[in-house]
Amino acid sequence: MKRREFLRLMGGIAASLPLSTHAQERVRRVGILSNPGPDDAEMQSRVAAFVQGLQQLGWTVGRNLQIDYRWSYGDADRLRTHAAELVALGPDVVLATSGVSILPLVQASRSVPIVFAQTIDPVGLGVVESLSRPGGNITGFTQFEYGIVTKWLELLKQIAPTAVRAGVLRDPFDPAGLGQWAAMQSVAPVFGVELSVVNVRDADAIESGMVKMAGAPNVGLLVTASAPANVHRNLILGLAAKYRLPAVYPYRYFVAAGGLLCYGPDTIDQYRRAAGYIDRILKGEKPADLPVQAPTKYELVINLKTAKALELSVPPSLLARADEVIE
Fold it and tell me: Are residues 190 and 123 in the same domain?
């Protein structure tokens, strides 16, 4: 999606209705708190799907809906400031676009309804009481359960059977990052893989960790789901290509940008579903009564061009299972 088209969609164009009709319709206010910036192509696609989902449910920017955006560019301090700003605007509901966006919003308000489009462990994070009965002012959609890491290790061994070591990119300050790492440690011996950690808090840590890891023979890469990995994905992809590391990623957009393969939820679908929860809250339902839902669509995507560059042979059985093959 081109930037101009995205901005036109985000700003919205008032429907061509008589002014008197506009005056009679109550305008509802939705806030969106995003960790990446508006120039992030993946975030553009997600937010566009969210806005289009609202339009399909009868909400039109400029007629009965106003959307306030705050883009934090991966900056934690800016994220906290923006969360407070959105709450101060008095929104009817706020969309948190990722796990790191949730806590600043919860800290800013325990009354403004919040919907998260994706996070890994909202119960462990302490933002909901349970998945079936969230309680409080927040609900939304999970990304996956920690058990998905078994699938990532299985895929690494299938596409790079000689790999006996794997670097794990994780966010050491995110409880979900620690959970993914612990889950990997518990199953890695089954696959005969020795794991080492690469922290992804900033670009310097990523580069130094990946360079050190790449010096070992028969090594692969496992990228866990985290906000820093998303922000620094071009760096990660570039280093994986430079050091010829077979890598498994959590989302399709890594593979579309040149990564080897991924297995994870359809992130665009998550945002369409989030629009449905926003609609229900705007119509009077409470977040406490809307259960946290798991993904309904998972994607196995393989980039054959990258596999060829790494001189890897993709097993026919793996190709047959793929939802998408990028050539």
Answer: no
Q: pTM of this prediction?
A: 0.85
Tokens coding 211: 């360079």
Task: Please tell me whether residues 38 and 114 are part of one structural domain.
Answer: yes
Q: How many CB atoms lie within 10 A of CB 18?
A: 8
Q: Is there a single domain that holds both residue 189 and residue 306?
A: yes
Q: Looking at 21-25, 29-33, 229-233, 257-261, which range is the least confident one?
A: 21-25
Residue 22, classed as helix, strand or coil, is helix
Reported as a single tens digit per residue, the pLDDT across 124-163 is 889 999 999 999 999 999 998 899 999 999 999 999 999 9
The three-state secondary structure class of 270 is: helix
How is residue 271 written in tokens?
């945002």
CB-based contacts of 265: which residues, under 8 Å, 6+ apart?
Answer: 118, 143, 144, 251, 295, 297, 298, 299
Alpha carbon distance 297, 293 (integer Å): 12
11 C-beta neighbours (distance < 10 Å), count = 11
Q: What residue spans of 67-164 are helical by DSSP H?
A: 76-88, 99-108, 122-125, 148-159
39: enclosing H helix or E strand: none
Overall domain count for the chain: 2
Q: How far apart are CA 241 and CA 165, in angstroms?
A: 17
- What count of residues does the chain have? 327
CATH number of the domain at 115, please.
Answer: 3.40.50.2300
Closest CA to 69 of 116, 29, 106: 29
Q: Which domain holds residue 160?
A: 148-265+299-326
Find where tokens 């007629």 sit.
63
Residue 325 near residue 165 (C-beta atoms within 8 A): no
Query: 97, 35 in Cβ contact below 8 A?
Result: yes
CA pair distance 86, 104, nearest whole angstrom: 11
* Residue that wins the pLDDT comparison between 36 and 156: 156
Angle in degrees, CA 249, 250, 254, rounded to 5: 55
